[in-house]
Amino acid sequence: MKYQKLLSEFEGQLEALESGNGDILYKAEKGIVLVEKCIHKLQKQIVGKDFETQADEIYFFKHVKPQIFSKLIYYIRLFSIESKRPRGKDVAQVKYLQQQIDKLQTFFNDNLEFYNYYRRGAMSMDEQYFVRGNRDLRMPLESFHFLIDDQFSTCQDGTVATIMAYDMLIVYLRKEVDDLNNNMEPTKNTPMEKPSKLFWTGSKTDLIELLYALHTSKYINGGTVDIKELASHFEYFYNVDLGNYYHTFIDIRSRKSSRTRFLERLIEMLNQRMESLEE
Fold first, then answer.
1. Which letter does DSSP use for residue 52 in this model?
2. Residue range 66-87: mean pLDDT, rounded
3. InterPro entries under this entry (predicted)?
């Protein structure tokens, strides 16, 4: 199936949307339109056609379609949550956002058996869950109209998409809660006075991969530094706006091959440099 070009274009469009101007409701609306267009195009490529092998079919419905469909669920839920968000005091907003997090967590509890199957990377039931024609009496929570077509759905690809979407939503909402809680705390008087003369000229995704690697290493302040503080320093030192780096990290984590592609590229380039000096 030749859908890689479509997916690459889609990822570029989403990255441009997320890093561009506009408030969260605008981005959610635009995101819904972008994802629906991509799903319709993908649907035309899949419906009425056979995969070369059953393994290809399982991979598509377990990994490829949920990666896109999860974005639709994410933006629809995000728009709903943000449009009803109270505009009053920070305390009221924190309470509301925490309630939304709890509701999302309920989905994981209600689908605990499949959630654990998916999370541990199990494959024993993949033929039942991710091959077309095997219907389940329990329809996924997020059915939408795309799952009506039996040629473009399996009994659990919608559930995988929902898990991925709710992961992204919980990360977003927790960041919002953290920001609001920080607003309610006394501000620390630690301004960075002199502007940095360094500029990050690679992709933001690569820098965020490096950011999380350094944070995970615990080599900065003995591991006590917060990811938000470290991100702020990255943004200052390299004159870059990392945007919703929590969201980007979820995308990095969702990669099915070479999750640490930037770090691996750094290792390769450093080795090449050292080898060239030895010649």
1. S
2. 92
3. Tet_reg_excision_RteC
Do the Cβ atoms of 157 and 65 come closer than 8 Å?
yes
Give the residue among 118, 120, 123 at the shortest CA–CA distance from 140. 118
Find the mean pLDDT for residues 52-70. Answer: 92
Q: In this predicted structure, what is the pLDDT of residue 2?
A: 67
pTM: 0.67
**Angle (nearest 5°) at CA 177 between 173 and 208:** 65
| Tokens, residue 198 | 């360094």
Residues 169 and 80 sit within 8 Å (Cβ to Cβ): no
- Alpha carbons within 13 angstroms on the beta-carbon side of residue 265 total 10
pLDDT at position 245 over 60: yes
Cα torsion 17, 23, 25, 29 to 10°: value is -30
Q: Which of 144, 151, 127 is nearest to 71 (CA)?
A: 144
